[in-house]
Amino acid sequence: MADPRNIPDGAPSDFPFDLPAASPRPGGIAARAAALARPDGAGHARGVYLDGLNPEQRAAVEATDGPVLVLAGAGTGKTRVLTTRIAHILSLGLAWPSQILAVTFTNKAAREMKERIGAMVGEEVEGMPWLGTFHSIGVRMLRRHSELVGLKSGFTILDTDDQIRLLKQLLQAEGIDEKRWPARLLANIIDGWKNRGLGPQQVPAGEGSAFANGRGGAFYAAYQARLKALNAVDFGDLLLESIRLLRENPDVLAEYHRRFRYILVDEYQDTNVAQYLWLRLLAAGSRNVCCVGDDDQSIYGWRGAEVDNILRFETDFPGATVVRLERNYRSTGHILGAAAHLIAHNAGRLGKTLFSEGESGEKVTVTGAWDSQEEARAIGEEIEQLQRQGHALTQIAILVRASFQMREFEERFVTLGLNYRVIGGPRFYERAEIRDALAYLRVIASPSDDLAFERIVNVPKRGLGDAALRQIHDHARAAQIPLIEAARELVASEELKPKVRLTLRDLVASFDRWRGQMTSLPQNELAEIVLDESGYTEMWQKDRSADAQGRLDNLKELVRSMEQFENLIGFLEHISLVMDVEGAAGGDAVNIMTLHSAKGLEFDTVFLPGWEEGVFPNQRALDEQGRAGLEEERRLAYVGLTRARRRAKVFFASNRRIHGMWQSAVPSRFLDELSEKDVEVTESRGGQGWGGGQSGRYGYGPSRFDEAQTFGSSYSTPGWQRAQNAARSNSGGGGFSGGSFSDNRPSRFAASEKARGGRVIEGELIAKSTGPASRFAIGDRVFHQKFGYGEVASVEGNKLTVQFDKAGEKKVVDSFVDAA
DNA sequence: GAGAGTCGGCTTTTT
DNA sequence: GCCGACTCTC
Q1: Reduced to 3 states, what is the DSSP secondary structure of residue A649?
Q2: Looking at A196, A261, A643, A647, which residue is catalytic?
Q3: What does the pLDDT average to over A429-441?
Q4: Residue A643 to residue A600: CA distance in whole angstroms
Q5: CA A116 to CA A352: how far, in whole Å?
Q6: Which residue in A32, A56, A58, A78 is the catalytic one?
Q7: What pLDDT shows up at residue A124?
Q8: Distance A431 CA to C7 C1' (A)
């Protein structure tokens, strides 16, 4: 092959793409990369970017021909390999920047990759138009060839919220009971099919009947038809329709084959079937596909990721080079040892053993606490101590399995006055006020966006309720026009009530006016005018609820963030794909986040609370996914441990409040899967030790919690507090101590019988004997205004469980019933 | 159409 | 125990 770059970008006949400025301008990325390769190039020796790579990394970078799988363990320099590989390809002149397809999962990863490549070869990275997320690249393809998949250019991208509202309408139209068959469930099922690359026609018959008595498949088809009618796609379609585009149009596929000389995929273990199919189609061209990933860090199976994709790579791409990166640059020896021992309990992995050349460092600590409050207290104290020793709070993270665990820490840190930052949670663009504001803008930008129109037609309340909306809907359906056009026609007619007619006339006129200003005003000024004139801002100003001010601030932030875009359309396109907003850096603060959102991050000190059966591994994962679920939970534990550079500190509590109920818990089996030589069992600094779990035996299974001790809601009564104080003061007797190592129970974290018995019984007795005594006793006949006559089945404080003659068993507060 | 009251659900999360 | 969705009433 001659110079592979002999098809210059922008050559009109060969590449019918609207190519960005990627031709070899003097300052372009390719020119800079090429300069790197020349001995005299800007002072760089040839291949200077290769310096400092270890032999495996270098092999992964230099294996440019054919399929390559890089198995990159945690902390082994995965991103560095990816970015260096791109720099290498560019500097050898193997491809232009626009001939490299580089895919990531998140916008954040794409951004980081751009920055790092930019730092390596020069600042200009716009030269890599095909570096992005699966979805953004899918959109790019679909926008170019929209007519080939039955869309008009300028189609809208619906997010989950829109998706569910659309499905709700479909279900309602068919008279489906939404209690039994929620739209959300259908959305999940459809997403599942799309994740697997299945269109409505390809859904296996049996599965299609899973929803609403055999109508799942039909609803899927109807939903897709609705999307087409709205000229819209959902996130799943971005891939599914791209696949269809490539499959049904060999000429288009051939063009992409010629274009993409090199394909790189990040986090390959997280790809789903659809992404895999898409990738295979594209990779069939050059066959130069390089996937980087770690099967041990696959934690997104529940949303369609197929670990199998990475496990099967060598079969899928015959002749693949496999490079293992096992040299860890992040964690100390003990942390790696503990993590490696844990993950070795998983079957079905490709098998890597991380090693480090650094020191072994501190052992991983395992600490038991009496309950989740004490767990938070102990962690708070350790953090304060680290802080006193001069450690930065930003280098400390608390990684939880589920977000309900966060609150305990937040409360504790507020009392301590310790700065913290919760990462994750509801994102900026998901907030109601932001979505409302965006809906206004969407209607302005594309009048046929019915979902957006519906969202704000009566927000703020302007008297256009259900009845009015139904009229508009009916007319729109009959005339086959968008809602806002239907509204316009109705206003011109005599159909509406006078008051409704006036309001609707004003609203339609407002939209016309705003649309007229779209070209003359910058989009942020327009947004401000729209929010003002529509009464939306005023609605929140009048609102006296606590978060109203926060919402107004968010709206301001939204308007401010619009400045940096070229126009309204550009802004809307951006936010439909990039639902995150640059996180405010904030000062020195402890990071609190879920294990899932911690993937890819690292901290000096990592606290891992809540290692209890049922919480972690999560009970539902076990119930629903069985062994596969357990293994994914274990990978999650592995991810958690390997986030730590110097200190990993695991905690478990014997009692935890879940859904408002106190439940005693068994220490997680994962604790016993940590290698003993790397672990140190410490006592909680709170001092009261822990009460232990049920049996200390490994009879794990779904029934484990059936006999779990549960306490009533009287936990905060003086009696309960006395019980806790009592527990605190006699920690010597029942507390956890190294002593339980010497008994020959299967688990070294199992409770001593003594500790367990004393605590639990005490708590139970006190909990039952306190609280406001009810006027009623078991067996009493009572009367309730709503439920009628019944018999008291149980009494918990002032709460009664009553077996009503007609209404069945209900829980009621005793002030609502009278003696019969 | 607003406000109060009731009921059910409740892992992880990106695009 | 808390939150959101829905219903009921005025």
Answers
A1: strand
A2: A643
A3: 87
A4: 8
A5: 27
A6: A78
A7: 55
A8: 25
Helix (H) or strand (E) holding A82: helix A78-91
Contact predicate A56/A326, CB 8 Å = yes
Mind listing the pLDDT tens digit for each residue in A734-765?
Answer: 333 222 222 333 344 443 322 322 222 222 22
How many angstroms is C1' of B8 away from CA of A816? 20
Q: Which two tokens stand for residue A578?
A: 């990039």
Range A284-298 average pLDDT: 94
For the stretch A519-557, pLDDT in tens is: 999 999 999 999 999 988 888 888 777 777 778 888 888
Predicted confidence band of residue A698 (pLDDT cuts 50, 70, 90): very low
Tallying the residues shown for chain A, one arrives at 820
Question: Which nucleotides on strand B sit less than 7 A from a protein beta carbon?
Answer: 1-2, 6-7, 9-15
* Distance of alpha carbon A558 from the chain centroid: 22
Q: Is 70 exceeded by the pLDDT of residue A51?
A: yes
Residue A694: both structure tokens together: 């049920």
Q: Indicate the residue type of A199.
A: G
The answer to whether the C-beta of A321 is closer than 7 A to strand B is no
Tell me: pLDDT of A558 over 50: yes
Q: What is the DSSP string of A421-433?
A: EE-SSS-GGGSHH
Q: Terminal CA-to-CA distance of chain A, rounded, Å?
A: 95
Q: Is residue A600's pLDDT more than 70?
A: yes
Residue with token string 């585009």: A245
Please say if A266 is a catalytic residue: yes
The whole-angstrom distance between residue A19's C-alpha and the CA centroid of its chain comes to 33
What phi, psi does A142 have (nearest 5°)? -65, -35
- Give, in Å, how far the C1' of C8 lies from the CA of A769: 38
A737 burial (CB, 10 Å; 0-12 / 13-18 / 19+) is middle
d(CA A494, CA A410): 58
pTM (2 decimals)?
Answer: 0.78
Q: Which one has a higher pLDDT value, A221 or A427?
A: A221
Give the separation between CA A263 and CA A246, rounded to whole angstroms: 16
Q: Is A405 designated active site?
A: no
SS3 A326: coil
Quick check: is A541 catalytic? no
Could you check whether the bond before residue A460 is cis, i.e. omega within 30 degrees of 0? Answer: yes
Determine whether A643 is an active site residue.
yes
According to DSSP H, which parts of A196-301 are helical? 205-208, 216-229, 235-248, 250-259, 273-283
Q: Tokens 């890089």: give the residue.
A: A70
User: What is the average pLDDT across A365-389?
Assistant: 93
* Contact status, residue A610 vs residue A651, Cβ threshold 8 Å: yes
Give the residues across from A606 on adjacent strands.
A397, A648
Q: Which nucleotides of C are covered by protein (CB under 7 A)?
A: 1-2, 6
CA–CA separation, A538 and A535 (whole Å): 5
Residue A811: active-site member:
no
Strand order of the β-sheet with A788-796 is A808-813, A799-804, A788-796, A781-784, A817-819
Annotated binding site of A: 72-79
- Distance between CA atoms of residues A481 and A638, nearest Å: 54
Q: How far apart are CA A420 and CA A590, in angstroms?
A: 4
Exposed / middle / buried, residue A640 (Cβ in 10 Å: 0-12, 13-18, 19+): buried
